[in-house]
Amino acid sequence: MIQELIKKIEDSYYWDARVKSLDCNYFGDEVKLVFEDDKKDITYHFEECYKVKIEHAIGCPKDRASKELTLAQIPYFIQDVELKEIKIGDKIHMEFQINLHPIELSIVCNKFNIY
Length: 115
Description:
Elements lengths: L1 H10 L7 E7 L4 E6 L6 E15 L23 E9 L2 E10 L2 E12 L1
Antiparallel strand pairs: 1-2, 2-3, 3-6, 4-5, 5-6
């Protein structure tokens, strides 16, 4: 199953795509990452999340509030997406490491879809 998801991720042509939004809802249970594609937006949808870690590089200044930025001013671009299975206790989960320079995103979840 992981190999199929990795193929779907690679087929989404995320490299250097501008991130349009990153939303964390329901107390971290659901995360949506939306990025630009030539024809339409692509959404990575993570569900049943156990870990959501968003780290913004301290050395990269935030000159304006993100909510005030126009689409062309958003400085986040997907550089890399890594996926692996991890075992916690007796359960298998998916662990994503996503570089949205200057943000590093780490998610551990049970469900993942691409729309």
